[in-house]
Recover the amino acids of this structure.
């Protein structure tokens, strides 16, 4: 009977430690995923900004060319 109680106590402690380990792993995974998403968002933002500048520059040049023709 005494051995049975010791075995149950050891199993309960092991299960608690495993659950805490899983929670830590999930938290670390979520943190890393958040960082990756943030970096991806920043890269997309930068690419869109550069694309916008390029399109704006092309439109400005086109407008300047049209203006010269009209003059």
């Amino acid at each position: 009977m005494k051995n049975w109680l010791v075995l149950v106590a050891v199993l309960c402690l092991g299960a608690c430690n495993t659950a805490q380990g899983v929670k830590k792993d999930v938290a670390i995974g979520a943190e890393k995923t958040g960082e990756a998403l943030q970096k991806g968002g920043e890269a997309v933002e930068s690419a869109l900004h550069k694309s916008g500048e390029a399109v704006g520059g092309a439109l400005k040049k086109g407008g300047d060319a049209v203006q010269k023709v009209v003059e």
Remarks:
- The mean pLDDT is 81.
